[in-house]
Design a protein that fits this description.
single chain; about 400 residues; mainly alpha; about 0% strand
Length: about 400
């Protein structure tokens, strides 16, 4: 199963790259096709980002349910094929509306994180699920780092170059997957597709009805909203508080992404083996709470940079939570579960930036009563504490 594993992890990495690939070139690209000022480009950039995240929220459960009915192989291969075509369209787009359509389609095709996680659930022993979900998280972390780096480097060759490169990478991965990817959904675990059940609300209701799952879904959502304080305000926070340059901000985000990938790809296996999933989650939350508290009041940029590896230790939470919920979910609903988690993750990507940037703006404005650029980290800390309380009150899942 090594080649299928590699294919699935590459697919997740490409999905994650799609989030950050356009960041370095989007302002120039929007001005190029739309005209206007950088301010108007920023507004359109927000619209494009929200459209991408909204499609992931809507289509995470749909693709997860489709994979339960028609197989992981078909969903992953079709998504990669359409993704390659979508990048070609974006490379040729001459209007803002084509770019918007491209990001909408891109959000749909990048919503296969749930299908990839369902594949891992299909082929993993119960005791290996947390570690294998960690590999999926690590692949996402690598893609999240590589996307902006790749977009920035290729921008030297024009605003369209990153899209051509991404199209080629998606097409190559599709070709490899066509030959190496087996089907892991069997007649025994296959479940008929229902559009009514595949919408995010119905899927969430169905999964939340499983014994012990509901409080863990709340914990997962609160964690996702709080942890997105980093991509939401990091660039603004470090500029305001430490006076960092764009290069320094990029370096710090790269260090965080690498640390997150290392934790989810390597540390999660021994952590869950020796501590168990429950204790691992609590330790991860404790690391996040301490990190948020330090960053809220920190004024030294060097210490902040040194603190980044500790903030990455909290990355054990996601795969451990996924493993707990996966073991309590029937085999026929693994795709649906992962689709729900993907939707909650996408919802946090919509909510957290709006929430965190508003708090940040309030506490740095000239007439603010308290000047505190790190205030969003205190909000994230509060959300994480609520998650801890919910997790402690949740009954252990009997499997």
């Amino acid at each position: 199963m090594r080649l299928p594993f590699a294919f699935v992890l590459c697919t997740v990495m490409i999905d994650a790259m799609g989030i950050g690939l356009v960041m370095p070139i989007m302002p120039q690209l929007i001005v190029e096709v739309q005209g206007g000022t950088l301010a108007s480009a920023a507004i359109w950039g927000g619209i494009l980002s929200t459209a991408f995240a909204a499609m992931q929220f809507i289509f995470g459960p749909i693709l997860g349910n489709l994979s339960d009915a028609y197989g992981r192989r078909l969903v992953l291969l079709v998504s990669l094929f359409v993704m390659a075509l979508d990048y070609v369209v974006m490379a040729l787009a001459g209007s803002i509306w084509l770019l918007l359509i491209g990001r909408i389609v891109g959000g749909i095709t990048a919503a296969t994180h749930s299908t990839a996680a369902a594949f891992m659930a299909d082929v993993s022993k119960p005791e290996d699920k947390a570690a294998n979900f960690g590999l999926v998280g690590a692949a996402f972390g690598v893609g999240f780092v590589l996307g902006p780096v790749m977009g920035g480097l290729l921008s030297e060759y024009g605003t369209r170059a990153p899209f051509w490169a991404a199209a080629g990478l998606s097409a190559l991965t599709f070709a490899i997957g066509f030959f190496v990817m087996p089907e892991t959904v069997t007649d025994k675990t296959r479940r008929a597709f229902s559009l009514k059940r595949a919408n995010p609300v119905s899927s969430l209701t169905a999964i939340a009805a499983l014994p012990g799952i509901r409080p863990l879904l709340w914990v997962y959502f609160l964690y996702s909203v709080s942890i997105y304080v980093y991509p939401a305000i990091w660039s603004y926070f470090t500029t305001e508080r430490f006076g960092w340059s764009p290069q320094m901000i990029g370096l710090s985000l790269g260090v965080y992404g690498i640390g997150m990938a290392a934790v989810q790809g390597g540390l999660i296996r021994p952590a869950t083996r020796y501590l168990g999933e429950r204790v691992t989650i609590l330790y991860g939350m404790a690391f996040e709470i301490v990190s948020f508290l330090f960053l809220a009041f920190l004024t030294n940029g060097l210490i902040a940079l040194m603190l980044i590896p500790m903030t990455a230790l909290g990355a054990v939470i996601t795969p451990a939570l996924q493993a707990m919920m996966s073991r309590a979910t029937p085999d026929s609903q693994q795709g649906e579960l992962q689709g729900v988690l993907a939707s909650l993750h996408a919802m946090s990507m919509v909510i957290s930036p709006l929430l965190m940037t508003s708090v940040f703006a309030h506490f740095i404005q000239p007439n603010t009563a308290i000047y505190l650029p790190g205030a969003p980290f205190l909000l994230a800390l509060v959300l994480m504490l609520v998650g801890v309380l919910l997790f402690l009150r949740a009954r252990p899942i009997a499997v």
